[in-house]
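Structure ticket #2291
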Amino acid sequence: MSDTQNQLDGAPIGSFVALGDSFTEGLGDETSEGELVGWADRLADRLAHHSPGPLHYANLAVRGRLIDEIIDEQIPRAVELAPDLVSLCAGGNDILRLGSSVDRITDRFEEAVTELSAAAGTVLVFTGFDPRGTPVLRHLRGKIATYTAHIHAIAERHGCPVVDLWSMASIQQPLAWSDDRLHLSSEGHRQVALRAAEVLGLAPERDTSAAGARRGPANRQAERLADLKWAKEHFLPWLGQHLMGKDTHATQEPKRPELLPL
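Resolution: structure written out below.
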């Protein structure tokens, strides 16, 4: 934390490139006009307030991307741009695939971090979410926990700050998730942006939101019915598309491909 704090104080972040999939693209955090925002845009706005000049920002994330695609499509561009800060969240879509190897995904993730570390000032990495409250996906909790442990180890080896999504209590609450329970809501993205800024050494903002409020007494029957409704309307259609290698919200281009002033 102190090293990152010193970097921000002594050499403010003037450029930021975000890499990844739908999480970093901002799915689930849309404006009334349908434009995606997301934690990365929110973090960029916060960084801009701490930059002596205009912050240059690019978001190369594309929903549905696997780690190999992120490495092939996004890493070379990020290396070319050589920003002060680059964020990397990758491997989540791979982890959800049947038969995927955590060891292989981890090896690829470290390859990406190694390449980015040689070009960028700081590489900010993210762990996986804890799926304990999500039907079906909770059965992958051990696999995701193993990947999260590997990411912490990689970050320690390469000196990367880590946003530990697994341990964030504020995104374990229903308000932090969109109706599909697969993507964060606007509140969830806001919470992640706050945490990322704090990890980078920015003074924490006072959080007066209700996202941290916990559920009332559980109504197990109502929860089961809600889980079944969610599985039918959201999870099963998503799973069918995911296993076929398709995305129901298919897009091929990043929303902010150039490193431009914010």
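Closing remark: The chain is about 45% helix and 10% strand.
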